[in-house]
Amino acid sequence: MNIKQLARKNIQALTPYQSARRIGGSGDIWLNANEFPHAPFYQLNTQTLNRYPQPQPHALLAAYARYAGVNEEQIIATRGADEAIELLIRTFCEPNEDAVLYCPPTYGMYGVSAETFGIERRIVPLKENWQLDIPAVKIALPEVKLVYVCSPNNPTGNLINPDDLRELLAMTEQRALVIVDEAYIEFCPEHTLTSWLNTYPNLVILRTLSKAFALAGLRCGFALAQSDIIQMLLKTIAPYPIPMPVADIAEQALSADNRAVLQKNITEIVENRQWFAHALPICECVDKVFDSNTNWLLVSFHNAENVFQKLSEAGIVVRNQSAQPGLDNCLRITIGTLEECQKTLAVLCAMNTMGTAI
Ligand code: PMP
Known about the structure:
Elements: H1 3-6, H2 9-13, H3 20-23, E1 29-30, H4 58-68, E2 75-78, H5 80-92, E3 99-102, H6 109-116, E4 120-123, H7 134-140, E5 144-150, H8 162-172, E6 177-181, E7 203-208, E8 221-225, H9 227-236, H10 244-253, H11 256-279, E9 286-289, E10 296-301, H12 304-313, E11 316-317, E12 319-320, E13 330-334, H13 338-349
Parallel strand pairs: 1-11, 3-4, 3-5, 5-6, 6-7
Antiparallel strand pairs: 2-8, 7-8, 9-10, 10-13, 12-13
Helix pairs in contact: 4-10, 5-6, 5-9, 11-13
Residues 34, 80-82, 107, 150, 154, 181, 183, 208, 210, 216, 221 line the site of 4'-deoxy-4'-aminopyridoxal-5'-phosphate.
């Protein structure tokens, strides 16, 4: 028996998300997954692992509500923001009827989650300045139930213009949800849209502890929205999605004491990013360093393939973005420790325009 043929047709055809861990690599400087470079230390306070956890741990929601400045009824905790991306599709999209819309170059999971559930993907590329093409989005809207917008956008690093987001929210009112993925918002917190939640009934904001909170291994994220959306999502989420140790550590990470640590983390990364962005243009192989509101730099090279290879030989793993529309010859380099940035710079500066040794 050919097991492959037993699978749903869209799964047979599916190319799974190429996560940084799935692609792999080798070396000791990992700058390919937008992780924080140091591991925080936590100890478990909860020892009642014989019991199921609360479906939505109350203390966790209360802590995140305080942190984000929203009400507890406006939050659902998920297994990373990735689970929320999928949960929205499972809850709101009818297979073979509805569509989701997103605007590449952007985060790959919006498309992969839609494909997994057999939901049509409407792809409206960002404009050359990496902003929304509002007229094109408007034309593509029929049948669309969910519009995913990432701000700041992975991998381009820019914020999406808030006036365009207001227009998008207005044109989709009563017919579609607009999901603004704020996975990296801690690196530019003044740009969060949480204050819009009470105004727009169709706005959903995604958050995660994987980036500035340095907890990618914990797998804890959140969706924020008006309570009627949250109630619908609670119908479809797994019965016990947040393991007790996850809630325990996430609550500690969100405590008032730890918020000072978070601030220190953010300052370190932003300072390293500024140093690195300033230094990179001296390397011959670098074509352009793009502005970033995040914990990475998108860099265009004269020959990204060779540069990627040379970095890899030096044990530095970055992410090649050349396959994304408009990102020919671009690599995304996560900001690590200052030492990691310095080592990366030294390898890059030892290459000529073609990305071979000088
Ligand atoms: N959204 C974006 C834009 C991301 O880059 C990521 C991380 N790869 C996620 C969501 C998923 O984050 P999490 O680790 O919370 O699942």
